[in-house]
Amino acid sequence: MTGPSTAVFTGRVHGTVQLRHTDNGTPAARFWLLHHPRVYDRRTSQWTDGETVAVICTVHGAAAQHAAETLTDDVHVIASGQLRSAPSPHTPGQQQLYVDNARVGVDLTHHVAYIDATLPAVLAGQAPAHTG
After folding, report:
1. Could you report the per-residue pLDDT of 69-116, keeping only the tens digit for each?
2. pLDDT value of residue 34
């Protein structure tokens, strides 16, 4: 059985998340993710940084709006979705990787994330900040 390949990438958002809307009003977001793989070198018995992989992620629907409101440059994320490649418009002869219909989350290894139900009262504007 064949079908789209699903891929998972971890890395950092590079630049600004671009939010647009389709003709029928559906939000669509797009951003660059820079994946920095770690590679084990058996010769030296050390982990080293592999070659950086740039991936363009697209997100649709409510998740696109959330991504645009949440993600900023240099935020660590985990993104999964349908992997595809296409000729790069910027570098002839090279392929560009895309993760389409991505599901994106903040990487809790690097960040603390709050959801509406767990947002501290002070941050939600429901209680005065303690001064004293």
Report:
1. 999 999 999 999 999 999 988 788 888 999 999 999 999 999 888 777
2. 96
Q: Identify which of 27, 92, 30, 95 has the alpha carbon closest to the alpha carbon of residue 56.
A: 30
Unique residue bearing structure tokens 């671009």: 18
pTM of the model: 0.80
Over the stretch 20-32, which tens digit does the pLDDT of each residue have? 999 999 999 999 9
Bridge partners of 84, per DSSP, are 98
**For the chain, first and last CA: distance in Å?**
65
Centre a 10 Å sphere on the Cβ of residue 59 and count the other Cβ atoms it contains: 27
Q: What is the dihedral of CA 31, 85, 63, 79, to 10 degrees?
A: -80
Indicate if the alpha-carbon torsion angle 76, 77, 83, 87 is positive or negative.
negative
C-alpha to C-alpha distances, 3 to 6, 59, 84, nearest whole angstrom: 9, 19, 11
Domains in the chain and their CATH numbers? 5-124 (2.40.50.140)
